[in-house]
Amino acid sequence: MTASSLRNKISSLEKKIADLRKKDAQEAKKESDFNAKANAAEEAAAKAKSQSISSSKRREAVSARKQAASATANRAKLATDIARNNAELMKMQTALAKEDDKRLASITKEITRQEAIQAQHQRQEATRVVGAISHRIAAVSREAGASAEQYDVFISHASEDKDEFVRELAEKAESAGLRIFYDERKLKWGDSLRERIEHGLANSRFGIVVLSTAFFRKEWPKRELDGLFNLEIEGKSRILPIWHKISKDEVIRNAPSLSGKLALSTSSLSVDEIVEKLMEIAAV
To answer: What's the pTM?
Structure first.
């Protein structure tokens, strides 16, 4: 039986049981009323002063008792019918629950399958993008040759973090003598954003990644991070994470591969202190 048929059957049984309970309530009232009538007649018969009145009241009491007994018998039959229909209702409800469970399992299985397909597509796309960035960086590095401008540090960041942190970091690092690739300084009118950034990635010894809420919302900074990961794997660069107004839980959730790296935090270090530590690393 289909779920739709089971629901129709359940609805019909519930209506039938409700009707039976209504009839039982009516018979219960009759039973009570006739018993009360019989009691009153018996009491009147006992108090009657004439034999004829006493006999009449006793006959009235007997008739009322019979009618009360008939109502009691009807209630017994109704109780049997209610019990039988309740049992059938429970059976139908159990069958419907099983059908609903089967349908839910089927839906869950399909959702899981679709999610697996989507996750596979996302992994494939991520692999393609990372591969393309890596190949492009390698190509830029080869094309640039030994005469290409070299940098100590590439700063990967979200534009929202420039004013309150990144610009000052870049300026103070340059003042300390480090060669910094920072898009605001290195990109000129008419330059290809992608080509210049790939050039900066390919020719930097270190890659500072300013991790923030804004960083994880942006697609381009995350692509830069993928490129830095590939360079680090190839031994051509080293990632230096800086946490900017972000918690460890957020880093673990958005970039678990970076959560195990020792990171500096703008909440505990000033820009000058961060530059000092950068100078120590760059001097090695």
So the answer is: 0.45
